[in-house]
Amino acid sequence: MESRPFDAPHDGVRSEGAGFVGRSEEARRLRAALRAGPGVVVVRGEAGAGTSRLVDEVLAGPEFARWTQLGGRCPDGAEPPPLEAVTSALARLPHRPGLADRMPPVTGVVGLLVPELADRLPEPPASASDPEVRRGLLPRAVGALLGSLGDTVLVLEEVHLADPETLRLLDRLTGALPAGLRLVVTEDAAPGLPVLAVRAPASGRYEEILVPPWTPEETEEFVRLWAAGRPRVRPEELPELSALVHELSGGLPGAAGALLADAGELLSAGGEGGTAGRAVPAAVREAGVPGRVAREFARRCAPLAEDAWRIVEAAAVLDRPAPVGILAEVAECPPEAAEAAVDACVRRSVLRAEGAALSFRHPLDRRAALARVPGPRVARLSLRAARALHRAGDRPVPLVDLARLYTAAGHVREGLRCLVVAADRAAAAGDYATATRLYTRAVVEAPRTGGRVRTAAKLARTAQLARAGEQVVAAVRAVLDEDDPPPHLRGEIRLHLGVVLRNQTGGALDSLEEVARAIPDLEASHPQTAARAMAVAAIPSLQGWPLDRHRHWLDRGETLTEQVTDPVARAAIAANRATALMLVGDRRAWHAAEALRGPAGSAMEAAHHARGWTNLAHAASALGHGARARDFLDRAVAGLADSSSPYLEGLVATARLVLAWHAGHWDGLHAAADRTTRLYQEIPDLTAEAMLVRGLASLHVLGDVPRARHDLAEAARTACYDTGFVLTSSAAATARVHLEAGRPEQACEVVEDVLGRIERTRGWVWASEVLPVAVEALRGSGRTARARRLVADFAAGSADADAPAARAALAVCRALLAEAAGRPDDAVALLTDAEERWRLLDRPLDAARAVEARGRCLLDLHGEAAARGVQDVVEVYRHLGARWDVARCQRLLRRHAIVTTHRRGRLGYGDRLSPREEEVARLVVQGRANRDIAESLVLSTRTVEHHVARIMRKQRAASRGDITLP
Q1: Which end of the chain is more exposed for a tag (fewer CB within 10 A), N or C?
Q2: Helices assigned H by DSSP within 375-448
Q3: Which residues contact 250 (CB under 8 A, 6 or more apart)?
Q4: H or E segment at 354?
Q5: Which residues contact 344 (CB under 8 A, 6 or more apart)?
């Protein structure tokens, strides 16, 4: 059977280089049906789903290579030639010498319809010259011919277009199926499309296989395969690109392949330097309707009568599922004619019927239809559609659709009114993501200054609780810079913009300065909003002002508290005040948190309560109050049950990750952190925190040092308003890698930036993650005096804070200084105290590190007699799943010439790889250099070289590139 492009009959597109995706179960069933013997297989799927590709892929398999494969397609036309699909299939029958001698005379009838076979078949009976006799003999003749060929597959495609003669022939064939014949027919099966299949055979197998559109996961697999050979496609773009392709194509492989093919051409035409930023999703959007999709859509529309095309126009303008009555009203089509027109549209797979509603199969079809409607007619139809939707009386009123339709009709003010009301309703319902998107559109599209200013205030207020991207910030800044809002609105907009910048898109100092600029306007016009601005400015950051300046705004805000009467403002201030106090370990934070317990009177008030609880969970976790942090998080989750705020949901997700990390709950943590990183990549601080946890898991759990260093560095680079965890933890983990590799100077360089921030802000309460490793690095590089000064400042700066993690970290720092001063007994006592403190805080990794440091001191004092303590902590690390830490302890034991062996003696592996060699081989196959392998496995580079040499010898590999995994 001739080869065909990827579903070319349906959409005329092929997924070049993208592979065969998402059809493994359907392919398995088709193979099984073919192997089972004679029978009929109906492969059903709507246009573009890949029915032809499925059949091609299966029949191309080696097990069917020796079978006779014949294929034809039912023509698409008003008056197709009778039996065209069957005759074109038989015309491809390969020549076989002597075939005519083995066939009964009746097969000669086939030669009268298929001239290509006339000289290879017996002479037809004389009676066949009569057309009626020939018509009666033809089914027997075709059956006899096919039955003489042995194992044969006859594929007839698009059988729903078959003419009556073809259907009659198929009916006769399936009634007495020839020996060895497998009849495979493909059929369109869009929802609402009538089924025009063949009957099940009287004998033999019958199988019906539905080929559905791709799921989002299958579309993502397709996109990843497409992107594999395209270096311009960045890995971080793939989730967005996959979702976009699935949305535009409706999961239909033909449309998806065409979309990416056109986008690829746009990228190629852009030159080497023309695809900066998120270029590939942008190229997909710019590609518009692929030419092949537009031509295929035009082919399906070609036979439609005028009434049917008017229905298509109405559906394109409405751009929402609609019943026949609405479509008929917009199209100005009489009801009876509309019913027939809709039926024609569904039969041609131009529209899809889902129950009583009709719509396009995917957005690309809708765009192709709309492109064929002249602009003035679009305006007239849009106004008619808006009025029809109003009259329909649906509840709730589809305001967003009405806004689009009124705008397209030229009624801009009415469209903007609908848009703002829709956004107001979404905000009132707690759907802040939708509200932010709609307010942004309204600000950008509003032609009048007053409307832009009022809507910008709503936008800035709502965007705090959604994913506010650069478009939101640009829209709000444009209003501030160009529209000269009155002072009270200017101050309010600046305040909310400052919060958006802090939480999601900008830097800490930009955010704080924006809030500070808002306060004078607000004090003069609206004291309770000024109090709210001061509460925002009170929240400290390692990237912000010195703590005293934050405390100044906290105290000033307190003087205005009694003037705040608005419940939403009170909730926002209470959340910020509790957060600001908790972040610095102020004991008043616990009492301040109680202000969030009251019942919320609105969705916005509840959202601020939830935000406060989530912030408190983050802050309490960093201070060492893990149990209380979990309680705060539970309250936040309960408060979010009836709202939709991506930002708050992301805050909850990252808090869970951090709590799981501290508590040693690491099963699946790397995967969870990876999902969260991808999901919230538009919100920098959420991305940074999730990426930090992913990096920590890569280091300690996976032992993947290069990946860990990348994530840790990216987390630090991405953080915008770090409140004391991301920058310190990133620096600490990276410095530990350098220390273990014997690079104390580089470890010092890594921690100096964050130490400088701590010293500048006086945020010593945030130093517990980084200071112990900083002391170790400074000690290793001969700067013990600097380490002593830092520890003294840490002790003084955290003395009054309710921060148990800081006190445990201080004990570790003092122990390291004691060890450096030659006082190992003092160091051991301090480390024992630190271990106990960390255990009480449910921080098993930190406790194990204290035990490891104590074991190191004892090994220096007592040698092998003290090895048991380190061996015990190895088991603790194993229980945690801390692969990298296990390797580090084992190296510590090797440095003291202490080797743990199996009781039955060392195992001999012969030509097999040892477990350590398998680990090395795995990293070599991944393309890692010896230095990277050494860091990941905590070995020396020379040891790795020896392992690689042994692996190559055992595998008889000519080079490291020939090493394989066992």
Answers
A1: C
A2: 375-392, 399-408, 412-428, 432-445
A3: 213, 361, 362, 363, 364
A4: strand 352-354
A5: 303, 304, 305, 308
Distance from C-alpha of 323 to C-alpha of 186, rounded to nearest angstrom: 29
Say which residue, 14 or 31, is predicted with more confidence: 31
- 232 burial via Cβ count (<10 Å: 0-12, 13-18, 19+): middle
Three-state DSSP class for residue 194 = coil
- Sequence-distant (6+) residues with CB within 8 A of 526 are 488, 491, 492
- Whole-angstrom distance, CA of residue 705 vs CA of residue 712: 10
Give the pLDDT confidence score for residue 938 in this predicted structure. Answer: 66
Could you tell me if 311 and 341 are in contact, meaning their C-beta atoms sit under 8 angstroms apart?
Answer: yes
Task: Tell me the residue type at 417.
Answer: R
- In 240-257, which positions are buried (b, 16+ CB within 10 angstroms) versus exposed (e)? bbbebbbebbbbbbbbbb
Q: What mean pLDDT comes out for the span 29-34?
A: 95
Phi, psi of 899 (to 5 degrees): -120, 130
Confidence of residue 192 (pLDDT cuts 50, 70, 90): low
Question: Which tokens in the block code for residue 107?
Answer: 């097969």
pLDDT in tens, 43-62: 999 888 999 999 999 999 99
Q: What is the mean pLDDT of the chain?
A: 88
- Tokens, residue 706: 């290069």
- Dist CA 250 CA 365 (whole Å): 10
Q: How far apart are the first and last CA of the chain?
A: 41
Determine contact, residues 843/625, Cβ cutoff 8 Å.
Answer: no
Two tokens, residue 853: 């440091």
Question: Which residue shows structure tokens 């480390």?
Answer: 831
Residue matched to tokens 């036979």: 303
Chain segment 439-472, per-residue pLDDT in tens: 999 999 998 999 999 999 999 999 988 877 788 9
Q: Which letter, b or e, does each residue of 76-103 get, where b requires 16 or more Cβ atoms within 10 Å of its Cβ?
A: eeeebebbbbbbbbbeebeeeeebbeeb
Q: How many CB atoms lie within 10 A of CB 846?
A: 24
Q: Can you list the alpha helix ranges (DSSP code H) found in 228-305?
A: 238-249, 253-269, 279-286, 291-301
744-753: pLDDT as tens digits: 999 999 999 9
pLDDT tens per residue, range 280-335: 888 888 878 999 999 999 999 999 999 999 999 999 999 999 999 999 999 999 98
* Cis peptide, bond prior to residue 396, ω within 30 of zero: yes
- Cβ proximity of 350 and 365 under 8 Å: yes
Distance CA 39, CA 178 (A): 9
Q: What is the value of pTM for the model shown?
A: 0.66
Handedness of CA 854, 858, 863, 867 (dihedral sign): negative
Question: pLDDT category, 195, cuts 50, 70, 90?
Answer: low
Q: Which helix (H) or strand (E) holds 959?
A: none
